[in-house]
Write a structure and sequence with these properties.
The complex is a heterodimer. Chain A is mainly α. Helix content of chain A is 71%, strand content 7%. The radius of gyration of chain A is 23 Å and the shape is globular. Chain A starts with a helix and ends in an 8-residue tail after the last helix. Chain B is mainly alpha-helical. A two-stranded antiparallel ribbon of chain B has the order 1-2. The termini of chain B are far apart. Classes of the chains: A mainly alpha, B mainly alpha.
Chain lengths: 442, 355
């Protein structure tokens, strides 16, 4: 039997992880659609047109599931965390109200876009995609801003557990908002790019070496691989913001039990709460001090700056963080390899590279989820950092465990059918396009 | 009138839009479930065709209501979440299954070679059943907060909203209203699509039947409300004008349907639930959940309410023309044979010039 806190947290983790995959594809895919349809318009090119039509179908299904799984979250805020909403719903109100309108515009213009292919002029049709792309990104910015406020709350005055003054713009000035938002947007574009590239890389590996597959692959992989090094820089910025505003989370991310001068960089390992030591970690002496302060003997705060009751679960946070960074570094290496191959015109003909891109798709989703696990678990035991404990925010209703199992069952069924539909969509170039002569250029 | 009242009015408007537009989509699912006769497949086709481009935008009204509530009335949102756990959880399940099933049914349907994605038939059924359950539980949730029998801490238990007659009746009324709205709208859509007199007659019959049922339930609801929701009954004087308006609109819709004036019938049909919701809102004001939380105790700090009101106004200015554009494009659709839904048609490739 799960207690309410565990059940509610697991359910939140499940619902967020499920939704975020659709959310990031909803951020990225519309931009790729605009690009492909724009190419089709400019060059009157049927291959680009076919790609845009295909991607639009994928967007349609993914958006529907993203919309319903996002609705789940807005209900769950209240059903699982009523105390949190009572106290801080007003503070989060502004970004979420803006998010509602962004979602509105996205849904309306997506209706125009998906059903307007034959009813609008080609140019007008392209333009209906622009608000979809912009509002998809705006949604992500607003929601991430709200989350950033939970990590670094500012602008509220409370008395006896009631919010008496809430600065309406507080979430937008939360100091972690900038890096968190940019980090997520870049991640969204990378997941989208690798997802698209992987589909066409699979086709290329199976010998479908036509312009349709090469362009699909090139579009997705170029977007994702170009951003991989950028994400390295943004991630560094983000972790510095954490070090500054959430030192305990930072200590958990890095697996640093004790405040120390010349702190080592811990790779992997398990935290032992009894002894307060990291077990099995590979330590790079002075590494963390060097990375954070460019000074081998600089002091870095450890978990011991707060009592044990205020520390997050270290092992999960640390391993998720390491996994994210490991995958990120792998993607940067892949980007370098891609650049090298591209300059030799061998990017779409090198089998190991295509296979690596296929693997990069799940890897990028893994990095995205690991990043969220690191930031959400790392914020524990607080739901709003240093203002409200997660344990005090959870619902006292019985039966949350059943709610969790029902959600898991429904999402499992939804996933099975979604995969079946997407697999059918990914069955190669449309028949009449495949009959056209393949262009001879690399 | 404070900023919080303004936010409350905006939420009521959003709720009205959801009841009419989202309600008609749920009603479409009800008629999918009840599709019968020689034109069964044509009925289902018309429903899918009418919902396709708009159901997601219509669904956003619900998100708008939820977010407006937790932003403008955070404490009330907490209380409502506690006392309405079961109906809201069931509604959520229905909403998820309905939306996903609609998309899966549409995009999993047979390809040119005649092969459907496995499970597509089942999703069609799921769509219909979930569309039927959801408005019922939403109606239960809405009426349960009027009874004054739900303490703010949720100690009455998850089943409490289902234990008194008014919420159950309101659930049935919500379901009948959704079916009524959908049937009226589908009459018009069938006519516009030149789908043939048979299909129009099918939905006209359904609209008349649903109107009779919804009207009967609404009238039966009055004495039940007197017994079950004394707070509402005590302030019924405020609700008289909208309630009378609702009755007149319902009657007008019936007459217009009878005379096959489907365009005007749409407007009258939409006005009937609008009057009911506004009458209800006025009678229940200032309670958000009777006896548990009211506007003053539930609202966000004044600065927040003002900011939210500004965002709501700005947002509506952005959204309204876009919504009009979408509806205009949908209306311009030609006869049913030509329609197909463009996003899922079998013609994967046409040249850009043809598009």
């Amino acid at each position: 039997m799960l207690d309410n806190l565990t059940a509610a947290r697991e359910q939140m983790a499940l619902s967020l992880s499920f939704h975020i995959v659709f959310a990031v594809l909803g951020v990225g895919l519309p931009w790729l659609l605009l690009f492909a349809e724009g190419q089709a318009l400019r060059r009157a090119d049927p291959v680009w047109y076919a790609l845009a039509r295909k991607w639009a179908k994928a967007v349609a299904v993914l958006f529907a599931i993203g919309a319903v799984s996002g609705t789940v979250l807005s209900f769950e805020f209240g059903l699982l965390w009523p105390t949190f909403m009572e106290r801080y719903g007003g503070v989060l109100g502004l970004p979420f109200t803006m998010e509602a309108f962004a979602f509105f515009l996205e849904a309306i213009f997506l209706g125009l876009y998906l059903y307007g292919w034959d009813r609008l002029s080609p140019r007008a049709h392209w333009w209906t995609g622009v608000p979809v792309a912009i509002s998809g990104m705006a949604s992500a910015i607003f929601v991430t801003t709200a989350n950033a406020w939970m990590n670094a709350p500012v602008g509220v005055v409370e008395s006896a557990g009631h919010t008496v003054v809430a600065e309406p713009l507080a979430p937008f000035v939360a100091p972690t908002a900038g890096p968190q938002v940019v980090h997520l947007l870049v991640a969204a574009l990378m997941v989208t790019g690798f997802g698209v590239a992987a589909v066409y890389a699979t086709g290329l590996l199976r010998g479908r070496r036509d312009a349709y597959h090469r362009r699909g692959f090139a579009t997705g992989s170029t977007l994702a691989l170009m951003l991989a090094p950028v994400q390295g820089v943004v991630g560094d910025w983000s972790s510095r913001a954490v070090a500054r505003y959430q030192p305990v989370k930072f200590a958990a991310l890095e697996g640093l039990p004790r405040t120390s001068a010349g702190a080592p960089l811990s790779l992997g390992g398990i935290y032992d709460p009894a002894t307060g030591q990291m077990r099995g970690a590979i330590d790079i002496p002075h590494g963390l001090s060097l990375l954070l302060h460019a000074n081998p003997t600089a002091v870095v705060s450890g978990l011991d700056v707060v009592p044990p009751a205020d520390r997050p679960p270290v092992t999960v946070t640390h391993l998720a963080f390491d996994l994210m960074i490991g995958l990120g570094l792998g993607m940067i290496a892949l980007a370098l390899a891609g650049l090298w191959l591209w300059r030799r015109c061998r990017a779409t003909s090198t089998r190991w590279f295509l296979r690596a891109v296929v693997l990069a798709a799940p890897a990028s989703v893994g990095a995205l989820l690991a990043g969220w696990v690191a930031t959400e678990v790392g914020r524990q035991p607080w739901i709003v950092y240093r203002l409200l404990r997660t344990a005090d925010a959870v619902s006292t209703q019985p039966g949350l465990e059943l709610f969790l199992y029902a959600t898991a069952a429904v999402y499992a069924v939804l996933t099975v059918s979604l995969v079946a539909i997407l697999r059918r969509l990914a069955t190669g170039a449309p028949a009449d396009l495949a009959r056209r002569p393949v262009e001879v250029h690399q | 009138m404070t900023a919080a009242d303004g936010v409350l009015a905006a939420i009521l408007l959003g709720l009205t839009a959801y009841a009419i537009l989202g309600g008609a989509d749920f009603g479409g699912g009800v008629w999918d479930l009840l599709a019968t006769g020689p034109r069964r497949d044509a009925q289902r086709g018309l429903i899918a065709r009418s919902m396709g481009p708009v159901w997601e935008a219509n669904h956003v009204w619900l998100v708008f209501v939820i977010i407006g509530l937790f932003s403008g009335f955070p404490r009330a949102f907490g209380v409502l979440s506690r006392v309405l756990v079961l109906p809201l959880a069931l509604a959520l399940l229905g909403i998820v299954l309905r939306g996903a099933a609609f998309a899966y049914r549409q995009y999993g349907r047979p390809d040119p070679a005649g092969r459907a994605v496995r499970g597509t038939v089942v999703w069609g059924r799921v769509f219909a059943v979930a569309s039927t359950i959801t408005p019922f539980v939403l109606g239960v949730a809405g009426a349960a907060v009027a009874t004054g029998q739900l303490p703010a801490d949720g100690s009455a238990g998850a089943l409490a909203p289902f234990r008194s007659p008014l919420p159950l009746l309101a659930g049935a009324l919500a379901l009948a209203t959704c079916a009524f709205l959908a049937a009226v709208f589908l009459c018009r859509d069938a006519e516009m699509a030149r789908a043939g007199p048979g299909l129009v007659a099918d939905f006209r019959r359904r609209a008349l039947a649903a109107a009779a049922l919804a009207g009967g339930l609404a009238l039966a609801g009055l004495p039940v409300m007197w017994a079950d929701a004394p707070a509402l009954a005590g302030r019924f004087d405020r609700a008289v004008v909208p309630a009378v308006g609702s009755v007149l609109a319902g009657a007008a819709a019936l007459i217009l349907l009878w005379h096959r004036r489907f365009g005007a019938a749409r407007v009258a049909a939409a006005a009937a639930p609008t009057g009911l919701l506004w009458g209800w809102g006025l009678a229940q004001y200032p309670w958000l959940a009777v006896g548990a939380v009211d506007v003053a105790s539930g609202a966000a700090p004044p600065a927040t309410s003002t900011a939210i009101l500004v965002v709501l106004a700005t947002g509506m200015i952005l959204v309204t023309p876009a919504l009009a554009l979408l509806l205009r494009m949908v209306r311009r659709a030609g006869p049913i044979e030509r329609f197909g839904d463009a996003s899922a048609d079998s013609r994967d490739v046409t040249s850009p010039a043809e598009a």
